[in-house]
Each structure stands twice: as C-alpha cells, then as structure tokens.
Fold this protein.
Amino acid sequence: MDAELARLADSKYVLVTTFRKDGTKVPTPVWSARDGEELVFWTRSDSGKVKRLRREKNIELAECDVRGRPRSQPVPAVARLLDAAGTDRVRRVMARKYGPSGWLVIYSSKLFRGAKGTICYAVTSPGSST
C-alpha cells in the first residue's frame, strides 16, 4: 500500500468520489480501514455509488469529516468489488477499527438488511498490480 492510501485508511472518514456518465463528481463520506495492502470501505448495496462503480472503477479519495468536508487533496485510486467472503472479512475489520459503534452499525445493518444489504470494496493505487 502506498503511503497516501495508508494515511487515508487510518483516518476516521474517507471521501469516496465516484463519477457519473457525464463525468460529474459525486463525493460521499464513508468508513474505511486497512486490510492487508488495501484500503477497504463498506457501503449499502443499493447506493448510487455502487451503480456508478459497476461502470467506472476509477475513483478519487480524500480525508474528510463526518459531513464529507474534505481535509486533504484528492488522490486517484481504483476500486474493486469484494466477494461475499471478502465482504464478511471487511465487516469484521471495520467493527474492530470503529469499536462498539462500528460493531453496532455493521451488525445491525446485517441483521436488518441481510448479508447482501451491504458490500465492500478494496481500493488500490492506479498503477498497482493487486
């Protein structure tokens, strides 16, 4: 993991910017964590960013506050959808990073939305081979 992604993975909130078909940027604050050599993030499977990520894997990331106000310059990255096993692993990583509130949010989401109600993405630098 490069230094910039490592720094972002350690921050509390990350601004994930996806792109509409016309190129319009759509920024969204998310929880993120480090999973091995990748930054990972968790989101609802019916969110708009998931639809945009199906079409375009290139994203921008920046550190942000809970409301999505950027605290750093954006960096380019590439998102990859994780399978069910990877998503389960990332849920545990997120719960560990965010403590009791993370556990409560993630597991209540799984309880009310089901296992397929949320999905996770792994993020790498554009030139990375992972």
